[in-house]
Amino acid sequence: EYEAAFRMYDINGDGVISVLEFKTLLHTVGLKPSDEEVMGMIDSVDIDDNGVLSLCEFIRLMSKQHKPFVTPKAQFEAVFRAFDSDGNGQLSREEFKKSLFSVGQRCSEDEFENLMSELDRNMDGRISKKEFLSVFLTHGHGNTTC
Predict the structure, then answer these.
(1) CB neighbour list of residue 146: distance below 8 Å, 6 or more residues apart
(2) DSSP for residue 53
(3) Model confidence pLDDT, tens digit, residues 37-85
(4) Torsions phi, psi of 53, nearest 5?
(5) SS3 string of 58-88?
(6) Considering just the CA atoms, what is the radius of gyration of the chain in Å?
(7) Out of 31, 57, 98, 123, which residue is the most buried by the measure of CB atoms under 10 Å away?
(8) Residue 92 CB-density burial (10 A; 0-12 exposed, 13-18 middle, 19+ buried)
(9) Residue 41 and residue 118: Cα distance in Å, rounded?
(10) Residues 6+ apart with CB under 8 A from 40
(11) What's the pLDDT at 68?
């Protein structure tokens, strides 16, 4: 689950989560920490002292919380709500495409169609919250060695 969250918020795909990307993650789930608080969170696990979070550092940060401030399910539910601009509990193709674009995810038409096929399990042309969560939460169980 944490790996899926990491991939989602590594907006530019460079393999690390920057301060800005981490703040975006926190804002998405309703948290509004100061820049100093964000840097403190990153510094608490930043083993290589480069000011960004690698996947392993991100997992350590999320895991070390006594009561995680952001669970992967809560995070993806918040993302879904943010993407669901009309609030009907479903993402239309247009809503989903606009939302991906708004968070910096650029993809070709073929890539978008593949993503829609993976997410729209019942093939009704819309992505339900259940479909969205199912894909993102189950794909987060990759092999990670941290």
Answers:
(1) 55, 56, 59, 60
(2) B
(3) 888 889 989 999 999 999 999 988 887 764 555 667 777 888 888 889 8
(4) -105, 120
(5) HHHHHHHCCCCCCCHHHHHHHHHHHHCCCCC
(6) 16
(7) 57
(8) middle
(9) 34
(10) none
(11) 53
